[in-house]
Each structure stands twice: as C-alpha cells, then as structure tokens.
C-alpha cells in the first residue's frame, strides 16, 4: 500500500496555477526530493500532501504524516524535552529522539533559547517521535552544520529502513537515501 499518492493534482495559489497534472506515489522505503526555483510550489506541494491545502483538481491520498517546516511547533516556554513529550504518543521515546537529533545536552533548555540549527534538529526530533509513517520535510537542511547534516541523513535512513516514506523540499542535496527527484518549473 502506498503512503502517499497524488493523482492528476493541480495547485492554485497566490493567484496563479503552480502546477497541474501531477502524479506521484511513495511506497514504504521511498524518498523523494522536490526541487525547483523559489516560488514554484515546493512548500505548497508538501502542504497539499499534509492535507493543509486543498488541490484545485485531482486527488491526494496520504497515510498519517508529520510535517517539519520553518515553524518548530514546540511550546517556546517549555524545556525542550517537555515540549517534545507533547508529540510523543508513548512519552518514553523522548530521550532516544533527543539523542538521535544530537540534543541531549539541551533537554532542559527552554525552546525559545535554541539557535536556528538547534530548532531545526528539534523539529526533526518531533517528527521522528510522532510515529507517523510519512514525513514531509520542508528545507530540513536549512541552518544545519556538517555534523547536523550527518544526523539528518541518519534519521532519514532509519525512517526508510523502518518502512516509512519521505517527501522533502530542498535547495540542497540531502543524504541518507537514494532520493528520487521531482523538479518543479516556473
Ligand atoms: N499563504 C499563501 N497565500 C497566498 N499565496 C501563497 C501563500 N503561500 C505561498 N503562496 C504563493 O504560492 C507560490 C508558491 O509558494 P511556495 O512557498 O510553495 O514555493 P516554494 O517553491 O516552496 O518556494 P521557496 O523555494 O522560496 O521556498 C508563491 O508564489 C507564493 O507567493
């Protein structure tokens, strides 16, 4: 069974047609990288897949998903571990997620004090904690240093090996998978 399927999808946003006739299918273990110039609709495509945006035409079928974009979706006033616990169905997985994202030392630091790259990694920890089989990652490498890029690649590889799928938008190459590519054009 596919974890994401788009059938003949058209997207209208900002007063113009961003794309139409788009078909794609992601099965367990699949990773797809969406590329293209600014404003061509990469983030919009992720929001369509997340069910946050309605297609102008066509059909979107998605498994339970977790979206990581520029908004961390973590309570800024809470210590990081407590903020992440909100998203953890079983609660107990938070320490392992912190370790996998290289955030052990920051568990008790309020989210509002984290740096840009630390917040990105906290978003990845949130997504990995969610248990969602479909990850939607919008520019996940933004603000990450070399070591953090390696952590991202490891998280990607583990999620795919566990039977998940990933749709990511990025201006830079990502590791951890043999990425299929989808280029959106103006
Ligand atoms: N909330 C919104 N309301 C109206 N138009 C929007 C909204 N968000 C984005 N758009 C428009 O939709 C178009 C596609 O934007 P989108 O963010 O999907 O592009 P992108 O390919 O992800 O760009 P970038 O590479 O800059 O991140 C742009 O023209 C943008 O102005």
UniProtKB/TrEMBL annotation:
It holds the Pfam family ABC_tran. GO terms for biological process: cytochrome complex assembly. The keyword Membrane applies. One of its GO terms (molecular function) is ATP binding. Keywords: ATP-binding, Cytochrome c-type biogenesis, Membrane, Nucleotide-binding, Translocase, Transport. It comes from the Bacteria. InterPro entries: AAA+_ATPase (IPR003593), ABC_transporter-like_ATP-bd (IPR003439), ABC_transptr_haem_export_CcmA (IPR005895), P-loop_NTPase (IPR027417). Residues 4-184 form the ABC transporter domain. This is Heme exporter protein A. It comes from Sphingomonas kaistensis.
């Amino acid at each position: 069974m596919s974890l994401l399927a788009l059938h003949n999808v058209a997207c209208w946003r900002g007063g113009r047609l961003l794309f139409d006739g788009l078909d794609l299918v992601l099965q367990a273990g699949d990773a797809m990288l969406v590329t293209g110039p600014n404003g061509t609709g990469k983030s919009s495509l992720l929001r369509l897949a997340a069910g946050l945006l309605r297609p102008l035409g066509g059909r979107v079928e998605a498994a339970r998903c977790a979206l990581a974009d520029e908004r961390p979706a973590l309570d800024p006033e809470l210590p990081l571990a407590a903020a992440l616990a909100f998203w953890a169905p079983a609660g107990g997985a938070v320490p392992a997620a912190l370790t996998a994202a290289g955030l052990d030392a920051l568990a008790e630091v309020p989210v509002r004090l984290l740096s840009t790259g630390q917040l990105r990694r906290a978003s990845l920890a949130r997504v990995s904690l969610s248990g969602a089989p479909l990850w939607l990652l919008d520019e996940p490498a933004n603000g990450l240093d070399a070591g953090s890029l390696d952590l991202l690649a490891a998280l990607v590889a583990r999620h795919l090996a566990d039977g998940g799928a990933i749709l990511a938008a990025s201006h830079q190459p990502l590791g951890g998978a043999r990425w299929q590519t989808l280029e959106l054009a103006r």
